């Protein structure tokens, strides 16, 4: 979101308070939590002490890794464009400052049509507010629940966009680590709506020779090497394979009575494609699933290779 100014018709101080001009930020404000997070380095030109000078807040529409998400409308613009604002209580990030800083740096560094866009960051005495692209079309998970399963052509088109987005991340050594249908939103309710990958609260950027060791993610979509606490970016590819299976079958490949049962099946790569629903699925679709949901991460397709799969 830009920082272009809209002049007020009146010139008194109260009108300037509500205009697009940036209110003064005191030295004390600059020594606040935002400075510790490095936000002034990332967002110096857009930081303000009061987001309500710029946005009208609407209802809560969801919950992210750190706080609630609301619809917000930009003030003083004729288009009245809507955004999604994640409001993060400062009291909740005291012990997670590095995690939040990492999420912001990652969101600022990526630029892809299928990845949610971060427009701005604001601070007030109690909250940090992340202004992001608003998606009104709902979660992919909700679509799957409503429909049961997708056609092979529909699944192919959707997965190509996800592979493209993950390829963009992986080329920057960024691993999302929590890819699931709940973190894939439709931009609008239109039939051909674009999709957006969201929630980078668990994402991680690392060096080429570095491994990750923290168990994160959601049970149905987590890769076996994550459970073993030694993994790389290939864990995202496993999750995409699980999503493709879910799209075509209408159910996850790994299900169980509890997490331990699910994790046991994941570690044994115990899934099947012999139900009746798979009889109408092409051999090419089954082949790519096997090359994504593959026990050895080094044998999995990369996102770039998956985009070339027939």
Structure description:
- By secondary structure, the chain is of the alpha+beta class.
- The chain has two domains: about 25-135, 2-Layer Sandwich (Phosphorylase Kinase, domain 1); about 140-310, Transferase(Phosphotransferase) domain 1 (Transferase(Phosphotransferase), domain 1, Orthogonal Bundle), CATH 1.10.510.
- Helix content is about 35%, strand content about 15%.
- It is built from 13 helices and nine strands.
- The two termini are about 40 Å apart.
- Residues about 1-25 and about 40-45 have low confidence and may be disordered.
SSE topology string = HHHHEEEHHEEHHEEEEHHHHH
Task: Give the overall shape.
Answer: globular
Extended strand count: 9
Largest sheet: 5 strands, antiparallel
Radius of gyration: 22 Å
Structural category: alpha+beta
Beta percentage is: 15-25%
Poorly predicted runs are 1-27, 40-46
Helix content: 25-40%
CATH superfamily of the largest domain: Transferase(Phosphotransferase) domain 1
Per CATH, what is the topology of the largest domain?
Transferase(Phosphotransferase), domain 1
Q: How many distinct folded domains? A: 2
Report the mean per-residue pLDDT as an integer.
83
CATH-level-2 architecture of the largest domain: Orthogonal Bundle
Count of separate DSSP helical elements = 13
Distance between the termini: 38 Å
Strand order of the largest sheet: 1-2-3-5-4
CATH class group of the largest domain: Mainly Alpha
